[in-house]
Every structure is written in structure tokens, then in C-alpha cells.
Structure prediction request, 229 residues.
Amino acid sequence: MKGLSGKRVVVTGGTSGIGEATCRRFRDEGARVVSIAVDDGEENIVCDVADAAQVERAFARVDELLGGVDVLVANAGISIRAPFLEIREEDWRRVLDVNLTGIFHCAQLAARRMDEGVILVTASTNGLTGHENYADYNASKAGVILLARTMARELAPRIRVNAVCPGYVLTPMQRAEYTDEMLAAVNDGIPLKRHAEPSEIAALFAFLASDDARYITGAAIAIDGGETA
Ligand SMILES: NC(=O)c1ccc[n+]([C@@H]2O[C@H](COP(=O)([O-])OP(=O)(O)OC[C@H]3O[C@@H](n4cnc5c(N)ncnc54)[C@H](O)[C@@H]3O)[C@@H](O)[C@H]2O)c1
Prediction:
């Protein structure tokens, strides 16, 4: 990808799933990558993105490791499955705090370090259409999309900001939640008849961070095998 070699990249949630694949892809492109996540991992700073003070400390460490930030992939996120009528307030707040406020914290600190740069956020097709049993998650992801679009307007032309909206992605944890029958049933409802691989989402992040995407900002891009079509 044009222009990624030597870029200083921060990926949140880089220890698992989409984030892990994204770290690998950017490293393969010659970028210098640091992850920020709650659990331990290689070249990872342990930090809860919902906690402003922890995020401040994490970015101070990023400064020591990379000397600045050119690309942020704000990807850390959680979901808690529950019917709307049974969502507990503490769970509602936690999902919003991690998925939406976490991106606010990281994007603000990253943008303040950028002369020119790219901020990419992981939203979801759940931020585009309603999905049962994930009201808090869906609301957080819809918020992520408009946060990204607003940042795109305010930070242009120095910084491009885009939201990526994956559909069903077969991460190891997601696979563990399915029986073979459940996986087959979900696949059958997707026009391309399969889940995405994490590496396919990582490839979109790499493209959007590259110079090839220099005219793309303020977009919410679905990568969903046709799910929302
Ligand atoms: N897997 C899917 O099907 C799918 C679909 C659409 C969108 N997404 C979104 O993609 C992103 C990554 O999902 P995944 O399936 O790869 O997740 P995952 O559970 O495999 O990994 C989550 C990562 O986020 C980190 N994380 C979680 N809470 C955190 C916190 N409070 N502070 C810092 N880091 C934290 C974890 O340490 C881990 O590195 C999430 O935002 C998720 O909502 C996933």
C-alpha cells in the first residue's frame, strides 16, 4: 500500500481478532505499530480506553515508543448480549464508555499529535441498522459513525477520518460462540455465504490509511458480504 512504510500506527484492541490482524497487516506494510488493549500482548500497552487518565498515560508511552502518531485505528470494543427490556444500566454505561467514549479519548489524543494523519474507527453494520439484543452496542456504534463524520469535517484537510462497518467477522471468540449449525445458519443469511476473515477487515484499514485513499474522508464503509444490501 502506498505510503504506509515507516508510518507510526496505534491500534486499539490490537491483541485479538480484527485488531490483531490489523497490527499484523500494518507491520507487513512496513509500518511501526503499537497496540493499546486491556489484555497483555506483544508490543501492547495495557490500558482501558474508557478511562481518560489511563489513555493519557498510554499515549505518553506511545510518544516514547514512536515519537508521534500518523495513523490511529480505534478498534477496541465490547458487546453484551441482552434483550432491550433486560439491559442493566451498568452494562449500558460500560458498552457506551468503551465503544464510544473510548474512541473519543483516543481520537482526541491522537489528533493532537498529528500534523497530517488518518483516524479510522471500527463501527459495525450494527450502527447502520437495528439488530435485536444489542441495543446498547448498536447505539454505541451509530454514535461512533457520527463521531467519525464530525471529526472528518472539523479536522479536514489535515486529518482524514473514516468509519469501517464490518458485518459478521469470524474471530476466534465469535467462532467459539457458534455450534457448526449456528455458523451455517448465519452464513446462509449473508449474500456472500460466509463470515469475513479478520484479515479482510485489516486490508480495508490498510487501504484507508494509505495514499490511495487520499480523497476518502467522512465515510462510513460497510464491509459485510452484502448483509446490509
Ligand atoms: N467480530 C465481529 O463480528 C465484529 C463485527 C463488527 C464490528 N466489530 C467490532 O470490531 C472491533 C473488534 O472486534 P473483535 O471481534 O476483533 O474483538 P475481540 O473481542 O476479538 O478483541 C477486542 C480487543 O479490544 C480490546 N479491548 C476490549 N475492551 C477494551 C477496553 N476497555 N480498553 C482497551 N481495549 C479493550 C481487547 O483487549 C481486544 O484486544 C470491536 O469494536 C467490535 O465491536 C466486530
In short: Helices lie at 17-28, 52-66, 89-112, 135-155, 172-177, 180-189, 198-209. The mean pLDDT is 97. The CA atoms of residues 59 and 109 lie 7 Å apart.
